[in-house]
């Protein structure tokens, strides 16, 4: 059991964004520009999907961590606070995904 949260990681990412790129992978990704972080996020998402299809729980756990970390770096670079994403997710709790999909098709 851990009390470590995505908010905790987002805080670390925000702090490391200001570090020299030679000392921080986070800072290096951000200095390289949004396309670099976006590419890494895409790669990690594909690796997570492959691990899921293969039923590899250990890899899926590790790749999911990579996906979440790289998503937070991408959000940091785009100046989108994690709380905005959480607010969007909270807004969606008012409706089931299937109902939302059906509403879009009419
Ligand atoms: N959670 C992570 C995290 N997850 C993954 N990674 C890095 O993401 C990279 C994953 O890419 P790959 O597996 O493709 O490895 P790679 O081939 O070296 O990557 P590239 O050369 O293609 O960029 C690795 O270098 C990992 O070390 C992370 N780097 C940092 N963090 C967190 O960010 C904090 C600050 O890190 P720095 O910014 O490096 O100080 C750390 O203490 C962690 O809490």
Automatic annotation (TrEMBL):
UniProt-listed InterPro entries: HisE (IPR008179), PRib-ATP_PPHydrolase-like (IPR021130)
GO MF entry, a single one: ATP binding
Organism annotation: Microvirga aerilata
The organism's taxonomic lineage, starting at the top: Bacteria, Pseudomonadati, Pseudomonadota, Alphaproteobacteria, Hyphomicrobiales
Catalysed conversion reaction: 1-(5-phospho-beta-D-ribosyl)-ATP + H2O = 1-(5-phospho-beta-D-ribosyl)-5'-AMP + diphosphate + H(+)
This protein's pathway: Amino-acid biosynthesis; L-histidine biosynthesis; L-histidine from 5-phospho-alpha-D-ribose 1-diphosphate: step 2/9
One GO CC term, this protein: cytoplasm
Principal localisation: cytoplasm
Gene Ontology terms: biological process: L-histidine biosynthetic process
Top-level taxon: Bacteria
The entry's keywords: Amino-acid biosynthesis, ATP-binding, Cytoplasm, Histidine biosynthesis, Hydrolase, Nucleotide-binding
Cellular localization per UniProt: Cytoplasm
Enzyme nomenclature, EC number: 3.6.1.31
Similarity remark: Belongs to the PRA-PH family.
HAMAP family: HisE
Annotated protein name in UniProt: Phosphoribosyl-ATP pyrophosphatase
């Amino acid at each position: 059991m851990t009390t470590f949260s995505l908010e905790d990681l987002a805080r670390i990412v925000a702090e490391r964004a200001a570090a020299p790129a030679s000392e921080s992978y986070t800072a290096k990704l951000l200095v390289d520009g949004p396309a670099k972080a976006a590419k890494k996020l895409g790669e990690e998402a594909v690796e997570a999907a492959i691990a899921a299809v293969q039923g590899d729980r250990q890899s899926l756990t590790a790749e999911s961590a990579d996906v979440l970390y790289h998503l937070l770096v991408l959000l940091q670079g785009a100046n989108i606070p994690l709380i905005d994403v959480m607010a969007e997710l909270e807004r969606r709790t008012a409706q089931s995904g299937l109902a939302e999909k059906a509403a879009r098709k009419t």
